[in-house]
Hints:
There is one protein chain. By secondary structure, this protein is an alpha+beta fold. It has a single domain (7-115, 126-345, 383-410), classed as tRNA-splicing ligase RtcB (Alpha-Beta Complex). The chain is 29% helix and 24% strand. The protein has nine helices and 17 strands. The strands form four sheets. Strands 10-6-8-7-17-15-14 form a seven-stranded antiparallel beta sheet. Strands 1-2-3-4-12-11 form a six-stranded mixed beta sheet, sandwiched between helices. Strands 5-9 form a two-stranded antiparallel ribbon. Helix 3 (101-110) packs antiparallel against helix 6 (234-268), helix 4 (135-154) runs antiparallel to helix 6 and helix 5 runs antiparallel to helix 6 (234-268).
Amino acid sequence: MKDETYELLDNEGGSPVKMWTGGVPVEEQAKAQLANTAKMPFIYKHIAVMPDVHLGKGSTIGSVIPTLGAIIPAAVGVDIGCGMMAAKTTLNARDLPDNLGPLRSAIEKAIPHGMTPKTRGYKGRDEGSWQNPPSAVDAAWTQLKDEFDVICQKTPKLKNTNNYRHLGTLGSGNHFVEVCLDEQGAVWFMLHSGSRGVGNAIGSHFIEVAQQDMRTHIANLPDKDLAYLNEGTQHYDDYVEAVGWAQKFARMNREVMMQNLITAVRKVIAKPFETHVEAVNCHHNYVQKERHFGQDVLVTRKGAVSAREGELGIIPGSMGAKSFIVRGKGNPESFNSCSHGAGRTMSRNEAKRRYTLADQVRATEGVECRKDANVIDEIPMAYKDIDAVMHAQRDLVEVVHTLKQVVCVKG
Length: 411
């Protein structure tokens, strides 16, 4: 397949880096980080870079890293299985109330969100977890508990993580729940979250394990966060088992949230409606075994979505910007991948320095959402132009639906 929409990164001494970034900015630090990852000896063929690429911890966000015989825990990161879920309903824009405030409030009550600041000596419940988990959480946890108990036998420190009470909760940062309208006025529900506290604990533990395993060689790595686990070792097997479980937790976390979101909306909108007319649930921070160019390889998508031919995915914009339901084109050079969003152009601290609350209010006009100083870092101007991002990956996906949010809940 001839592909002219990617560019090769000029890096010496490493595997090729193919970048679908035409027309979008790429910071020099991200390019340097990509070049470092490409120097690892077990990279298969090349690294594929999506147009939302930006500097990350461990590995570059917006990168697809295929490996043979080794895995880099920090490339997967600590928000294991983070991803998106969207469901189209039979509701139309005219079915929504004129005042969307009560709808947003109902969603906020139905789904724990945010987190309690970690102040010295604080031992209370995290506000982003359940006080009394509902039946949907119990049912989902039943499907996860036995496998988690086995993992805890091998890694006892994971036993006391916040898992059961985090199942079906949102978190903070760029995680969100939205009510959106597509180009025909159909109402969609969309949300973004991952494996929460337990995924963070699993990721952090195995990043440390990999660095300890390589303590005599870590100085020779381009970056200590590129510490890896070799296939055939016990730590490799334990990590693959744990990360697979965390990805399952993340998927079920989104499913439980969606159930509770639907229930909340039905309390506000009296008109009967159906959901899942169309539905997508996809990871964008994960690792799994796939077959590419005739070889079974581990593919780590660090802020990237699987886009096999005909496969549906979700590419969200930023708070106040449009999002897309896409269909993959199965481009082999990208390892059948696409971007996971717009991608940040600046740090959260820089966004808070540069923009004001008035800027945030203007940028989110028409969206029922938080408009306060604590979400300025999520202002749309802190992200790349989503239209430019979509154009840069026109050979990777086609747009099926364009969504615009009318309600946005953030932690």
